[in-house]
Amino acid sequence: MDRITTIEQYQAEYEKSIANPESFWAGKAEQFFWRKKWDRVLEWNFSAPSVKWFSGGRLNITENCLDRHLQGKAENPAIIWEPNTPEEPGRILSYKQLYEEVCRFANVLKKNGAKKGDRVCIYMPMVPELAIAVLACARIGAIHNVVFAGFSAQSLSGRIQDSDCTIVLCSDGAYRGAKVIPIKEVVDEALETCPSVQRVIVFQRTNSSIKMLDGRDVYWAEELKKADASCEAVEMDAEDMLFILYTSGSTGKPKGVVHTCGGYMVYTKYTFENVFQYNPGDVFFCTADIGWITGHSYIVYGPLLAGATTLMFEGVPTWPDAGRFWKIIDKYKVNIFYTAPTALRALQASGLDFVKPYKLNSLRVLGTVGEPINVEAWNWYDQNIGKGKCPIVDTWWQTETAGIMISPLAGITKTKPGYATLPLPGIQPILVDNEGKEISGNGVEGNLCIRFPWPGMIRTTYGDHERCRQNYFATYKNLYFTGDGCKRDEDGYYRITGRVDDVINVSGHRIGTAEVENAINQHPDIVESAVVGYPHDIKGQGLYAYVISSNQQHDLDLLRKEIAAIVNKAIGPIARPDKIQIVPGLPKTRSGKIMRRILRKIAEGDFSNFGDISTLLDPTIVETIKGDRVS
Ligand code: WT7
Known about the structure:
The protein is of the alpha/beta class. It is built from 19 helices and 30 strands. The mean pLDDT is about 95. Bound molecules: 5'-O-[(S)-butoxy(hydroxy)phosphoryl]adenosine.
């Protein structure tokens, strides 16, 4: 373990990491098991972009997550699994058991044709087999592409096609609160348009009746029976791909963010141990789904690399009631709890009666991630969950960064509600104006960029390197652009103010406006649409859609339902607009660009200052849209 313990030590470590990043990160990397040590710590340029950490190094990340812990920690719990229904018995897998399960399933993958470099799509609920599948892929060098099991068949298909997956791992169905959700059925529909897929391996969770396609589909349990319990890990290069994870951007289809083996390993363990101030024996509960980067880095890899006990929860925070998280915390004596502001706001709205029955006295550290946390939610969390005794780490990072970038170190960095506070060692944030000029000093605000590589950073977007360059490295020369706006206050503390691009953060999930608009435009009567975000009490931001319909006769309630259904089908329920306004036109400049700034203001209900609208093609449209605003 390698942990900072005082603020002075943080400062010293930070300075060292900036003065000599290579020796700093080499020092972290040396703590892992490498089959062969690297030749060079770092080679980089942000214009290509090309970033290589620990090149020439050979390793398998699962040897560091599993094999290494068999000495001394074999009987320690690696995964605690809490099912959807509180009455169903949970499962606890020791490091030894997890190791064996991973090896066994790795052999299943091999037998079903998976080899190093192949892409494997995983579309599963939060059961231990999901974590096992992820690690089994890594064991044999197959590249996992986990798709959140709430995405629609069309989204799933797009992600499978874009990365040419040959195998899909799924379940029959999923339990989510009181509902049973179809999974295999969604996969079947998706695969109608995915010729690359040769094999589907189905884990039976709900025992729902499903169709099995002869020659393509096999049962997980059947395959396991035939598999051997030992599986040699495949040796990987530090820069070989570990996984692809799709995320939304401001334009076009979701992009496959690529992370590689060595840097990802070094970065997730370091950030896990330091930000949360992990102590051996701690039980760590991150409420994310493994379908998002938070689950990859802080349910699976970070905690397991550290030899920690990670808690996986299958269900939802409000079922059977809004006390579920707190019940789980007491049941397993959770020490570190990591969740999203949107969940806190929803639980706060349910009232304290759901918190009172629980002791919560095992808790030592609380964390949040995914969106800016409002001061009320922060205080509620601090007082009612942390009882004023647990430091809160507001962790800012992204799918592209692999791990936490700006965050307090629990109990070490003085916190301020709403502030992600200070950069972690090795992270060099910079604020720039719209022209890319550095905004220095304190008490300032600008576009948040990072000026030097860190081991966990994005390497490429799968199959389209140019898109990676365009998206992250072309806006400002020689800088990685995050897409976020940010303040640096008088103390040098960072506060993320939200996206400055056309990405909307709904309940901590990134939704690209273009994606939702493309979905809506599939409706035969919709001529054009524009989607913007607006402040939402629980979700942080909600989606407000302005649509132009060619059919004057249309029943408007029906049209709204049809639009919701179309978005559901194209993306999934998380992207369904909260409000839909049918408009006769959109505010456009003479060059045809939609003035989203105006649409955002109307959606917010702020009619105070639209700025200059004289450049609009038809300035009168603003009054019309204002008049029909959906409140
Ligand atoms: C975007 C990244 C990182 C895992 C979950 C989301 C927003 C994230 C914070 C925070 C304010 C935050 C940013 C960022 N965000 N954490 N602590 N405070 N905003 O990952 O889907 O890649 O989204 O989430 O806008 O760019 P993601």
